[in-house]
Write a structure and sequence with these properties.
This protein is α/β, with parallel strands linked by helices. Helix content is about 35%, strand content about 15%. It folds into 2 domains: about 5-155, Glycogen Phosphorylase B (Rossmann fold, 3-Layer(aba) Sandwich), CATH 3.40.50.2000; about 170-330, Glycogen Phosphorylase B (Rossmann fold, 3-Layer(aba) Sandwich), CATH 3.40.50.2000.
Amino acid sequence: MVEHCRHILISRTDSIGDVVLTLPMCAAIKEHLPDCKITFIARSYTIPVIRACRFVDNILNWDEMSKTSPADQIELLVNTGADAIIHVFPTKKIIWLAKRARIKLRIATGRRWYTLTKCNKLVFFSRKKSQLHESQLNMKLLSPLGITGLYTLPEIATMYGLSKLPLLPERLHSMLNSTNKKIIIHPKSKGSAVEWSLASYSKLISSLDGKNVQVFITGTEQEKKWVSERISWPKKEYVEDLSGTMNLDEFIAFINACDILIAASTGPLHIASALGKKAIGLYSPKRPIHPVRWAPIGTNAEYIVAPEHPQKGEPLNIESASVLKIIEGYFA
């Protein structure tokens, strides 16, 4: 029997990709409890992704909450009137606050010592040893609500709910040629993944048919500086480096306006996947960072796995021809 809840808090205060893979939980909750309100507790920089999800009713900014006193934090949680909280990413402080706020159902994994005394609904499973995808493992935390059963990856691919998208600014819209295929190259990952080499990305760009494509390099301002000190992108009229020129709202809208995104296992890859774009992920076969756990899950997502995990500091050994083949197949 599904536990009746009027208001559920979902706590996930880590990175963009993790948050994206948590959003299908919200769809599952709304499917079984259509009148239930969902509030997402998250970090500032991930909020644009959550704001775009039609299944989330409210957002609590953990960075802003953290600036207030513990008493004010507890009062804020009490005032939500929530009768359940799911600690998808268990944060000690939030777990402590939820218990002090006397939220009725406090759900978390039972494999961390600090959840044992402060959460009253524990779910026991190992993320590291599991053969399930991260998005499927997240769904396991719904079992104390009576929402059970294994969601398949094709089902999850349709459950992100990213329909409240920000508008694309005119300065970005004006760059897009309506007849050309638009490819985003996102070479860096802020250290969250084993990456492909800049030389391989450059070779891929040079192999593309410039008459039919536009290529956009994306990343942060810091990443742009790091990349520029190591490589010059091909001097092609169809290549534009937009690194450091977009905030996350703009980047989400820009991804939605393009056709393909190529990256290692990082947030923008999962955003593109959730938006139904051709998300091409580049992965190491090493557990637990392999695609069994972290592949992009979407209606047009695909990935390539290197034959072996590279030595420390080395890039993924994936041929640019393999990526080019996927691109040409998609545009055929």
